Amino acid sequence: MAALKDLAGVLPALISPLQADGAVDEPAVKRLVEHVITGGVTGLLALGSTGETASLDEKARRTMLSSVVEAAGGRVPVICGVAQSHLAAARVEVEAAARLGAAAALVAPPSYYPMDQATLLAFYRQLAKGSPLPILLYNIPQFTKVVAEPASVASLAAEGTIAGIKDSSRDFEYFEGVCIATRGQRQFRIFTGSDSMLLASLVMGAAGTICGTANVAPQWVVRIYEAFAHGDLVAARADQDAVHQLVMALRGGVFPAGYKAACHLLGICESWCAAPVQALDDQLEAALRDRLEAWGLLTASAPEPAPN
What we know:
Helix content: 40-55%
Structural class: alpha/beta
Low-confidence stretches: 301-308
Largest sheet: 8 strands, parallel
Number of strands: 8
Radius of gyration: 18 Å
Strand content: 5-15%
Distance between the termini: 29 Å
């Protein structure tokens, strides 16, 4: 867990650029990684919810992760998302992530059958036993129907089973509960997945955010973190206001179509989503273009990949 003990700041939950046939668009992955690293992010999450991990086949997942690791080139750590329906499959994904160069795995609990807290604890303990990577718990109950209660998170943190958590519940009372329950675990990494609540989360003790908006305007999200770190709450609030507006603008269509459309407008990738989700329609994309243009986000072309 040494690689994660000081990890903080902004980590984009990367989209997965795809071709029309559903294959991973590797040149676009390189453009995306260069775009966000240039924007000042401190790490990358491949194959999270914004990355459509639950909708990609094994070949696409492996290609996406290896492309991200290669494009990052060791400049920032890469975390791999895992969302599988049973323990054995989650183990396979974590082992593959380790082989491909990930620094950690962000693992959602199995989501088909109902799960009580004892079962949740057993899942993470069994997964962590012999794991080649540190495990972060992914709390996203709107997708999994499972809430990792703050007391459970604290128990797993105290025993070293998990190195951190990404909370995407959008429940700030829950988030506060996790922060309070783990306050004595100084190396435990707490990230909010709700970039619209980043400033409030930092005040409560978050290490930063793993978020989708950083695909589009990484520098905007980074400014919130940096202003807070420098004690400039006036600037941090202004930057949070801007990010909140961007978050709302990206929620058109079926998730994550808005994020992919924005990256298409930035010249990074095509707007294809994993089947059966459709790309943002022309009317919604035109409205999104107008918003991004008004905010000055379309004035610069997408960066080229770093040379090998």
